[in-house]
Amino acid sequence: xxxxxxxxxxxxxSADAVTNTDYPTQWRRPPTLVKxxxxxxxxxxxAIVYLILAIGTVEVNWxxxxxxxxxxxxxxxxxxxxxxxxxxSDIKTGMIESLTMALTSTVAGVLxxxxxxxxxxxxxxxxxxxxxxxxxIAVSRSLQEIIIAILFVAMFGFGPFAGFLxxxxxxxxxxxxxxAEDIEVVDKSQLxxxxxxxxxxxxxxxxxxQPQVTPRLIGLSLYRLDINFRExxxxxxxxxxxxxxxxNTAIDRYEFxxxxxxxxxxxxxxxxxxxxxxxARKWVQ
Amino acid sequence: MLRVDxxxxxxxxxxxxxxxxxxxxxxxxxxxxxxxxxxGKSTLIRCVNRLVEPTSGSVHLNNQxxxxxxxxxxxxxxRRIGMIFQEYALVERLTVMENVLSxxxxxxxxxxxxxxxxxxxxxxQAYALLDRVGLIQHANKRADALSGGQRQRVGIARxxxxxxxxxxxxxxxxxxxxxxxxxxxxxxxxxxxxxNLPAIINIHDVVLARQFTQRLIGLQDGKVxxxxxxxxxxxxxLTRIYGEEDWTAIEGDRAExxxxxxxxxxx
Amino acid sequence: MSTDNTSATPKEWQxxxxxxxxxxxVCWLALVALTVYCWQVMTExxxxxxxxxxxxxxxxxxxxxxxxxxxxxxxxxxxxxxTLNIATxxxxxxxxxxxxxxxxxxxxxxxxxxxVRPIALFIIVSSRSINSLIWALLLVSIIGPGILAGIVAxxxxxxxxxxxxxxxxxxxxxxTQIEAITATGASRAQVVNYGILPQILPALYGISVFRWxxxxxxxxxxxxxxxxxxxxxxQASxxxxxxxQVTLIFIVILATVVVSEWVSAKVRHAII
Lengths: 285, 267, 272
Hints:
heterotrimer; A: mainly alpha; MetI-like fold; extended; disordered N terminus; B: alpha/beta; 6-stranded mixed beta sheet; 4-stranded antiparallel beta sheet; 10 helices; 40% helix; globular
């Protein structure tokens, strides 16, 4: 602000005094993301080369695609005119399996996540406990549901029990991590205040941490319930029970109207879950 | 010349923000709009360029109706009206230059503006205006890298880049310190004199309003309760606009302001 | 929820608190009952002998999986490259389609709240509810097995994710900046370009990179249903019960996921 040459209005006599031939006629926006010119060009060329190579790997069997257009159209029609009745008993079994799997695995997952989450909070536990719990979380998070499902199906046989174990295992990684992060940002002054009263570790967790973390834990559990339901539709593909198996069969048989019905049911339940968890979260807070 | 006739605005919530407001502003006249919070000052200014759609009444700029224009015509009308905002309303993540050039958006095609290829005279004018407000060396900085006073100067340059026929100014000093507020007000008023621009300045600071404007309009509950010279604004008028209060402090400030203003203009 | 009121509190409050507590207890009880019921329904057909046998099976499986067949890695490079391409191209398609959907879904930019916005929201929820593996299953059945099905599946799944986060970002934009651009007489497209885009661009970059990271993870398994990438090798190895190969594929997938997470974190850090 130091130099403001035009501060006095006497400088210009008429409105058109600002005729501007002395000023540059061109302006180019300075680069925003990558300031270094060479690096920027290198990145752009790199990106283009990559795109060409990547698109080159896509082998399209056009005859097959054209043939598929008809099926695609039938799928869209199936989606618009779903057939709930023909496969209803299969759909019903699958849905019940999916829903029960989702609920039980969420409950089990949350129950196990709470101690692990507390153990993974740096401000509450000694370092070796912290490291063990973080390792459990890392393993659970880096393995995808479907891979765990493959292993559990191999161990426990086909069916929803393997699915239940898979989803519980995945829930642990998800919830413990978020819970631990929440606990780590818990208001320090409150922790200290309770510590100052000479409270034991259990009392500390009960009085200082729990009240602050509970509402969010409930919110996260509801969110995970939603995810578990969606995932339950997937792990059925490798034999871990749930609606996924029914869906897989329907698609394999090109019964797109039944597949459409299943997908619509999934979408409907997910929407329902989102709305009701929104209400539940408001109610908790 | 701006003419406002029987302008009323009732919001969808049922709140009556403006109640049959009428006045005219001659070319080169700087009008201060004062009144308590919620009196409808902000609504009035926004009804002029129809950022808020008035419920009834009419607005004319140089004998051309603004109310009743179609969407496209409204765009062409809005580019003739410069607006300066409270809290500057710069696009924070764009450069200072882009912010100033955005004043030409109503004149250039989408692709031109998308590629930032503005006509030479627009760019020259933008540089000249940035020089005028003392920020030419900051042209390539991002707007959020500037201080409050500097940002408001960019806001002024953006409005002037439109080559407007009218300036609408909404609380230009609301978030500035007293010294910066005065230099911003001086800049706005000076520019209006240079260009013979009519301006409506919506301002809550009565002292500033009295010091810098040629005419004051007092709004209260959506109605015009005062329209006159700043010198006519006495305790009884202030009470009429704002309600009962001890106004002597303001009278005291007035003398000090006059002094400090002189000090500043030397510096 | 856990702090109890002592006798010092007025009567009315105590009454209300105990009523609330009752509701909470009933909720917990209902949850427990529901869980137990669901457990019973779910395990109706479970053969517990298999479950009891699981530790032995696990030990057996472990023995068969170890050691990984390291020499198999040479077969995996090309599928891994395909996996990377599926994720990247899929993300690009997904983002490109998600941007218009997000603008149609955001309250402040949608052309019509009554018709267009619900449609956009339905597209988002459909895309989000259906896992990419299911999209792949469908697409393999429609356009045949291969990378293309994988790319489209990843793209379709990404639309909902990106569009949801993006439309929330659009709704959170600062309205005064948009108002200021409107007041210059700018057209609608110009208002989006100058007023909204600069405000949401960092969010868009961040979301895209985040989604790319997730897509790498998801595209490693799309091959299980025939949609290309390293999952094809996994499926082939599982079919012939070549467990040492499966182990190696798991290790490669794990490494890919870790690396992509690291890259995504770095890039996001650099952008924001």
